[in-house]
Amino acid sequence: MKCPLCRSQHFYVKDPEDAYTLFEFDMHDGEIIPAEPQTESDPLEITEETETFCNRCAWHGTFKTLKKTR
What we know:
Layout: E1 10-15, E2 18-28, E3 31-34, E4 51-54, E5 60-62, H1 63-68
Antiparallel strand pairs: 1-2, 1-4, 2-3, 4-5
């Protein structure tokens, strides 16, 4: 699972309750690997429809779009 534009595996999503809070992660073998350990009691849930941003280029789209680009 890589960015459709630059092939990066580094992404982030914004917290729907606080647009200034980001959750950064890498994709390896279809698994989400958090960039930093989550300290909150309720981890951020990433669904098929979660808007996802590439950490390397300007691409963004739904998480399911990433799953289709193998």
